[in-house]
Amino acid sequence: xxxxxxxxxxxxxxxxxxxxxxxxxxxxxxxxxxxxxxxxxxxxxxxxxxxxxxxxxxxxxxxxxxxxxxxxxxxxxxxxxxxxxxxxxxxxxxxxxxxxxxxxxxxxxxxxxxxxxxxxxxxxxxxxxxxxxxxxxxxxxxxxxxxxxxxxxxxxxxxxxxxxxxxxxxxxxxxxxxxxxxxxxxxxxxxxxxxxxxxxxxxxxxxxxxxxxxxxxxxxxxxxxxxxxxxxxxxxxxxxxxxxxxxxxxxxxxxxxxxxxxxxxxxxxxxxxxxxxxxxxxxxxxxxxxxxxxxxxxxxxxxxxxxxxxxxxxxxxxxxxxxxxxxxxxxxxxxxxxxxxxxxxxxxxxxxxxxxxxxxxxxxxxxxxxxxxxxxxxxxxxxxxxxxxxxxxxxxxxxxxxxxxxxxxxxxxxxxxxxxxxxxxxxxxxxxxxxxxxxxxxxxxxxxxxxxxxxxxxxxxxxxxxxxxxxx
Length: 472
Description:
By secondary structure, the chain is α+β, with helices and mostly antiparallel strands. It has 2 domains: 3-280, 2-methylcitrate dehydratase PrpD (Orthogonal Bundle), CATH 1.10.4100.10; 288-413, CATH 3.30.1330.120.
């Protein structure tokens, strides 16, 4: 039985998935989005802004700003820099700031950092168009619902074939955000997705050497999505079967893994079940796949007072689907050469938890990465496939430590902290935001921005944009 064909969208009516999503993006009204969902959306935006502020303190942000500034100025604010760029350049920059520390939210089933592309796009396009904060929030929700569902269709397959869904899938969501805010009709919104198919990108090759390219994926998705929407608005013709076609998104990027796709997940509960509510806010500044094992290691140190010299060997149980991302190549992961290497390393995350009892931004500084004690323990960490993994619903993990006296200690985090069934509270998100924002701005300004974002439905988008850019 060909189960894949059975899950193609609306096969009897010949309605493409792009048309279904275009209809959703075109017809959703502000009042159709429940207040609880709108509130959750604002908290996700708040989390993103705090990370963006913190990112302004790092070299990658300044080098990127120098590069995009070569294209000239514009009217759209760059978060935290007091600088204005042309729309697409500002969106590229703001997406990089949100995603640059790998501290931004994740939709677990879709395996995608959707806010990092959807928020900068909605903010930039709404501000450029003089639109309301309410319209901004609705467009952001539309993008989030689309991105998370499209990511879910692949069932984690993109990571197995070397593609980063945050950049790849984010382009389609951003095309719909930009199209919605610029008044595209349903046919134009459908066409924008077809055009997005030729400009969507995102390679995982950065995993080999800790390169910076992943940081730019969400912002590039936003710039590409805005471009696709503008082309569609002006009558440019793109392919109709952007997703399910012979060379559509899933067939062209997944190879044989396209057979496992469930296209029904892209529209299941659309407009009724809100995936925004299932987005996980990160408690740790690292790839979400490392969190359960990092927390397990911290718990073991806290519960048993483990010292580095007591450790003979360590086994980390992780989902098979994430091995390529956070466990291989083993030599790189056991001795990360830079912060990005460390953020995608199970051995380093576990070693940091066991040796220091924490894994925060401080553990990504050069002195921490060169710590011989932590590196010695990281060299003792081996991975195994977790037979009880709940991936992709949860990013489960377990750490088993064998001590030099022969004792074996273990701790399991079956539901990773921050997941939809173990979420961070609103107060937790505010605390995280303030901790990050204070790295770059005063307490007074941090509080002013917080109040603006939580009241976004009642203000103009360009007011928020000016406040984030430092010209409120």
